[in-house]
Amino acid sequence: MSNLHSKIIGCGSYLPEKILTNYDIEKIVDTSHDWIFERTGIVQRHIASENESSVDMALHASLKALSMAELSANEIDMIIVATATPERKFPSTAVLLQNRLKIQQGFAFDINAACTGFVYALDVAHKYIQNKAAKNILVVGTEKMSSLLDCTDRNTCVLFGDGAGAIILSESNNPGILSTTIGSDGSYKDLLTVDIDSEFIKMKGNDVFKIAVKTMGKLAVSTLQKNNITINEIDWLIPHQANSRIINAIAKKISLSNEKVILTVDKHGNTSAASIPLALDDAYHNGSLQEGDLIMFEAFGAGFTWGSALLKF
Ligand code: COA
Question: Would you say the pTM of this structure is higher than 0.85?
Answer without folding.
Answer: yes
